[in-house]
Amino acid sequence: MIVAVDVGGTFTDIVGIDENGKITIYKGLTTPKSPEIGVYEGLKKGNFHDVKEIIHATTIATNAILGQINLELPEVALLTTKGFKDVIEIGRQNRPELYNPFFDKPAPLVPRDKRYEINERVNAEGKIIQRVNEEEVDNLIKSIKADAIAISFLHSYINPDNEKIVAQIARKYFKYVSVSHEIAPEPREYERTSTTVLNAKLMPIVSRYLEALESLLMDFSSPPIFIMASSGGLIDKEEASRRPVQIIESGPAAGVVGVAYFSELLNIKNAISFDMGGTTAKAGTVVDHKIEITTEYEVGGKAHHGRVIKGSGYPVRFPFVDLSEVSAGGGTIIWKDSAGGLRVGPLSAGADPGPISYARGGKDPTLTDANVALGRVESLLSGEMKLDKEGAIKGLNRLGDYVEIANEAIKLANMEMGRAIRLVTVERGLDPEDFTLFAYGGAGPQYAIDLAEEMGISTVVIPPYPGLFSALGMLFADKKYEARKSYPKDLEKDFEELEAKVKGKYYLRYADVRYEGQGWEITIPVSDVKKIKEDFESIHKKIYGFTLDRDIEITTIRVFGIIPSYKVTLPKPKTEGKPSVKFRKVYFEEWIETPIYNREELPSNYEIEGPAIIEEYSSTIVIKPNWKAIVDDNGFIKISKV
Predict the structure, then answer these.
(1) pLDDT tens digits along 234-273
(2) How far apart are CA 245 and CA 62, in angstroms?
(3) Which residues form the Hydantoinase/oxoprolinase N-terminal domain (predicted)?
(4) Rounded distance, CA 423 to CA 271, Å?
(5) Which end of the chain lies in a sparser environment, N or C, as judged by fewer CB atoms within 10 Å?
(6) What is the mean pLDDT of residues 585-609?
(7) What is the rounded distance in angstroms from the CA atom of residue 133 to the CA atom of residue 7?
(8) Strand intervals (E) in 469-542
(9) With DSSP H G I counted as helix, E B as strand and the rest as coil, what are the percentages for the chain, rounded to 5?
(10) Which of 540 and 280 is assigned the larger pLDDT?
(11) What's the pLDDT at 571?
């Protein structure tokens, strides 16, 4: 059995599939202080056996950066070129809040007394001007008190010789050493140093977590562990421990991988992935069955309606699935501000105590409580977890009439999530009306039609096991290893050299390209090195609406080595039979006696006209009036306008 585990902010989802195609699923509350315990308990309770491989998405890197209790970041020392110890504090002098004179820049990840200058120098052409003195460096490193070492020298992306010498010495005294030419061999010393330092901060935390998980998995015959990377591929445990900076957006990437695979299976050219869980909602795009990738990311900062405020966090130069994320999940708290205005988020009730309707001690009403109060959701986990409707109504009534509050809160959440979708479509030169919306996550199918109406999208697809879809998506992820080189001189030769460095059965090529004189690049896929300018200008025109009569400049090329995973086959729905139907009152601008279906009973080609509710183990699907749903031959529910 291959088992995929997705540890989210609220739930831990596990999906396993054996050689006969039989699927085993489990969904349980996350154990935030020790997430490996929740994984272990889920494998036990879900009766997963004969585990041959564990595929894992984890939020531990993100949580550590955001300051979760019991995940304090370790102390890191930075070794850098003489005269450049303040690079990570100076940054780019961005003004994230232009009219806020009291804005505080994020605190440097390494305090000044832990930054050490090394007397070395490499010029912009890669020539060594000053070679390091090994004896001096050895004496310095021996005296440093820290948990990990980060090394980032000027222009090491062209010539890393000095970094290699210092790294070799550092590894005699420190277990965790992060070196910039191994982590982010790219120009821009601030972004490269920030990435290297973040990697050093995460190395002890991620390594210890994976070691603890590996120890617990001895009860399951110690299967190999593969981790979902932010780029949408799987990496092995050793790679994740060495370069943990690449698993910061581990969980959200998994769902997009699943959407890319299934959009091709269903012959859907363009798809929007919409993942709404217990804490956040995420949106991404799949164009021509390919995941959109970005190399610019910032962690630990502020976001405004899904848009990261540049300069408010710590930049990371690593490939990431292009995602937008907003604070709108089932556990997002509904409240009123000092002026009496209704607000939704950004705070979440999380897994503990959770929404009021969980009856676990939650005091603040949430979006889940709103759906429970309106009759849209009655229970979770196929009735295993009954929800307290009366408690939800009482909580909402503290803010006003519960129906008005719940309805208005859902509309506010839809506006916020609509902004997230626009960020990855409209602001990338894409028209959302040309896309199909794939909705998943425990809460996604409850809001999918609302969002489709707001964005002008005509078709919604709800995949099998939507509340466990990120875990399911990992089962279709390929193993993916990355290498890069800056300022290539012979494109074809340099691409081939990178391909020789990484393991793979086939390779994907990308290039960071800009017009001469531009400050920043666009990352484009490369199918033919002779067509790079043509491809770049086509994408530039889509995003910005114009092209320039200038030569282009390629700053960095990168290669992904792909090892295809075994593609599992999902069980088909039954082909005949009539589902049982029960009724309850559900609010759709008015109270309507609404049919309630069990998804497992729905045969293929069965049609349902809204209003209707479809319940299943991991989620509840809301079909509004004037929309209809049909179950296709693969078990997906396709919803469209009547």
Answers:
(1) 999 999 999 999 998 887 888 898 999 999 989 999 999 9
(2) 9
(3) 3-173
(4) 14
(5) C
(6) 94
(7) 46
(8) 479-486, 506-515, 522-525
(9) 35, 30, 40
(10) 540
(11) 79
Q: Tokens 């050093």 correspond to what residue?
A: 200
pLDDT for 446 equals 94
CB 50 within 8 A of CB 58: no
pLDDT at 347 over 50: yes
Tell me the residue type at 604: S
Distance in angstroms (rounded) separating the CA atoms of residues 151 and 173: 14
Tell me if 355 sits within 8 A of 366, measured CB to CB: yes
The DSSP code for 570 is P
Residue-wise pLDDT tens digits, 535-578: 999 999 988 889 999 999 999 999 999 998 877 777 788 888 88
Q: Which two tokens stand for residue 326?
A: 């907003």
Closest by Cα among 18, 8, 13 to 53: 18
Mean pLDDT along residues 498-512: 91
Cα within 13 Å of Cα(231), Cβ side: 26
Q: Token digits for 455? A: 């964005």
Q: What is the pLDDT of residue 295?
A: 76
pLDDT tens-digit profile of 47-60? 898 899 999 998 78
pLDDT of residue 252: 80
Q: Which residue has the tokens 């391909």?
A: 499
Indicate whether 307 pLDDT > 70.
no
Q: Which amino acid is at 529?
A: V
Domains and CATH numbers, the chain: 2-68+206-246 (3.30.420.40), 76-202 (no CATH), 252-328+411-473 (3.30.420), 479-563 (no CATH), 581-641 (no CATH)
Looking from the CA of 628 toward its CB, the CA atoms found within 13 Å total 9
The pair of structure tokens assigned to 298 is: 């910032």
d(CA 503, CA 510): 17
Amino acid at 388: D
Residues forming beta bridges with residue 412, ordered by sequence position: none
Contact 4, 471 (CB under 8 A): yes
Nearest Cα residue to 147 out of 72, 215, 232: 72
Residues sharing a CB contact under 8 Å with residue 338, sequence separation 6 or more, in sequence order: none
Tokens of 50: 């004969």
CA-angle at 213, arms to 212 and 216, nearest 5°: 90
Element (H, E) at 472: helix 469-474
135 is written with which tokens?
A: 């004896």
Distance, CA of 329 to CA of 346 (rounded, Å): 9
Distance CA 272, CA 281 (A): 13
165 CB neighbour count, 10 Å cutoff: 17
Q: Which residues is 26 bridged to in the sheet?
A: 14
pLDDT at 397 over 90: yes
Calculate mean pLDDT across residues 323-329. Answer: 84
Amino acid making up residue 474: M
> Which residues lie below 8 Å from residue 384, measured CB to CB, with a gap of 6+?
none
The DSSP secondary-structure symbol of 505 reads S
